[in-house]
Amino acid sequence: MGHLADSGLAAVRVVGVILVGATRQASSMSNSLKERVRAKLLRQLGEDGPLDSEQDDPRQISVESDLDALDSVADDDPLVEELAARYLVF
User: Fold this and answer.
1) Quick one: pLDDT at residue 57?
2) Is the same domain home to 24 and 48?
3) What is the rounded CA–CA span in Å between residue 28 and residue 3?
4) Which of 16, 41, 55, 88 could be stapled to 67 by a disulfide with Cβ–Cβ 3.0 to 4.6 Å?
5) CA quadruple 62, 68, 72, 74: dihedral positive or negative?
6) Do 24 and 47 fall into the same domain?
7) In degrees, to the nearest 5, what angle opens at C-alpha 37 toward C-alphas 27 and 81?
8) Position 15 confidence tier, pLDDT thresholds 50, 70, 90
């Protein structure tokens, strides 16, 4: 009987891990589209590294400009959806 009880406990642990993972995913999905777009833009800027003062990087300038524009509009502004489509945020 001890063996069966041990397997039941293992099943509970696995289900618990799955539920915790699903809960984390659901909470991240509850972020607004604007928050997700903002996070993506910030992540891209962070991955690009510091701006080279001797050379202009048009892509980085564009991302910074889009981030500024995003910060200046409301959550339901059409620009949020436009930027989400441009940066493939779902």
Assistant:
1) 86
2) no
3) 38
4) 41
5) positive
6) no
7) 105
8) very low
